[in-house]
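Appendix B. Raw example, untouched.
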Amino acid sequence: MNLLLRSLLLVTCLTAFVVSASAQQIVPTSSADRAAATSVDRVIRQQMSENKIPGVSLAVLRNGKIILLKSYGLANVEHQVPVTPATVFQSGSIGKQFTAAAVMILAQENRISLDDKISKYFPDAPLAWKDITVWHLLTHTSGLGDYPEEIDLRRDYTEEELFGSFKKAPLDFQPGSSWNYSNIGYATLGMLIGKVTANFYGEFLQEKIFKPLHMTTARIISEADIVPNRAAGYRLVKGELKNQEWVSPSTNSTADGSLYLSILDLAKWDAGLYTDGPLTPASREKIWTPAKLNDGSTKGYGFGWHLAELHGHRLALHGGAWQGFKSHIVRFLDTKLTIIFLANSWETRDFKLARALAASFYPAFALPKVTPIADSEPQTTSLVRRALMQLAMDKVDEHLFTPDVRATIPAKGIRESLNAFSLPVAVIHSSELVERRTENNLRVFRYLLTDIGRSLSCTVKLTPDDKIAALEVAEL
C-alpha cells in the first residue's frame, strides 16, 4: 500500500472514530437541563460504584426528542467492550408494554375485543377461567399469578406445555376482584396474539411496532442468532461478578418481557407514543387508564404501565428485571419528560436509580438521606423479603413468625403500606439494609424500601431460631 493511500485510510478511520465517539452522547442545550445532566451523571456513577454495575445506557427525552444520551461502563466485561447507544440489553418486564400495544393494535383492527372472554381463543381453558377477559390479562386483574413452581426455567417447553401448566394453577382471586402482578397473564397474551394472527407474537411486534418506528435492533431474545452489540448480564455472588444464570430458549421468548432493546430503540418508542401510529389516541388513553376493580376501587396500573400521581406529576412507568439486567422507563405525562435507563447487573437498585434520576429534574423526588450498610447476613435479608412479599400478596406462612406475633402485628396495615408501592414485589426485592443491632436477645434489622415516589423503613426483630418476633413498617 503506498504512503498516500495509507494516509487517506488513516484519516478515514480517524474520522469514523470521531463520528462514532461523538454519537456516544447528546448533551442538553439549556442551562437548567445542563445542571440536571450534571446531577444525572453523578447519580449514575455513584450507583455504578456502590453496586458494582458494569454498564448503563441512558436517555432523557422531552416531547419525544432526546436531550441527553450517555453511555457508561462495559457491555461485556470479559472482552472489555464499552457500552454505546447501540448496545442491546434485555428488556425484562418493560417488554410488557409492547405486548399490550400489540393487543391494542389488534383491537384497533377489530380483530379482538378487550371484553372477549379468553375462552374464545383457548377453548380448553379451565372452568375457573370462564370470566377472565383480555382486559383482565392486560391489567393483572385476572387472578392468574406467577409461573407455577413446576416450571423449570432451564427446560424447553412448547406453548402447549406451558399453557397446560398454567391451567393447573388455581386462581388467586375471582377475575376483577383484586390485583396481582401476573407474568403468566402476559405470557398468555402472547399466545393469544399468535392464535389471532397465526404468527409468533414476536413477528407481529416486528411488523406493527418495531419496523414502523424504525426500532432497528429491537427483537425477541435469541441465543442462537448473531446479535450485534449484545450486552452480557451479570450478578454478584459473594461480592464477585458472575455471568447471568442460564435459562432455556423457550422460556426466554415469552411475551411477559423477553426482548432485546437498545436505548435508541426505546427513544424511538417514546417518540412514537406522541404520534397517532402505531397506537391511536383512543388506545393510548385506555393504556394509561387505571384499572377499575369490581368493587369500584382503582389500581394504578393500565396496560403494561404502572400509573401514579406523585409530587404533583402524573407518571406512567415500568421496570424490568431478568437474567442479570435491570431497566426502567419513567414518563412524566404532563411535562412530557421521559427518563430511560438500561443496566447489565442484577444488583442495580432500579427503583432507587430511577427516582434519583427523576430528582435531578424534579427535586421533590429526592431520596431520603439514609446510607445502606454492608449486608453480612444475606440469608436473613432473603427471609425478610419472603415475609414481606407474602404480606403484600396476602399469603402468610405461619412458620416465619413466632406463635403470638400474628395477633400483635397489624398485618392489614402492613399490606396496605406495601401495596401503595407501584410494584411491591420488585421494590421488596431491592430493599437495602441500613441498620443492624441486638435488643433483648433479639436481632434487629432495619431495611430501606425505595419506590419512585416515597420510601418505607421496615424494622424486623428475629429470635435466635430465625422467627420474626416483630415487624414494623413506617414511611420516611
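End of appendix B.
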